[in-house]
Amino acid sequence: MRTRLVGLAAASLLPLAALTGSVVPAQAAVVVDCAGGAVTVDQSVEDVTVTGVCTDITVSGSNSVVTVPDATSLTVTGSNTTVTAGAVQEVAISGSNVRVSTPGAGRVTVSGGNSRAVVAGTVGTAKITEANSTVKAATITTGLIKASNSDLVATSGTSVVVRGANNSVRYATLPKLTVVGANNHARVTKGKTKVTVKGPNNVIRVKKRA
Question: Residue 29's pLDDT is what?
Answer without folding.
Answer: 85
